[in-house]
Design brief:
Layout (H helix, E strand, L loop, with lengths): L1 E3 L2 E3 L7 H7 L9 E5 L2 E2 L15 E6 L5
Parallel strand pairs: 1-5
Antiparallel strand pairs: 1-2, 3-4, 3-5
Length: 67
């Protein structure tokens, strides 16, 4: 189990950030977001190969604002 923005989500070893984003409602394939795992920023260049650990606390911050 991991926590994504304070909400629980099932974890599995091959889980990707793309799957996490879709599960929380993102519909575009490449959203402009900041992703932190256990308080550490994960740069966009590292996201594809990043191994998301079990029990991780993930914070996803949308960087675009409507107006």
């Amino acid at each position: 189990m991991i926590m994504v923005n304070g909400k629980p989500l099932d974890w599995r070893p091959e889980l990707t950030f793309g799957e996490i984003l879709r599960s929380i409602g993102y519909t575009i394939s490449n959203p402009r977001v900041i992703i932190k795992v256990n308080g550490r920023n994960v740069p966009k260049s590292e996201r594809d190969g990043f191994a998301i650990p079990d029990s991780a606390e993930i914070e996803i911050i949308n960087t675009l604002c409507g107006g």
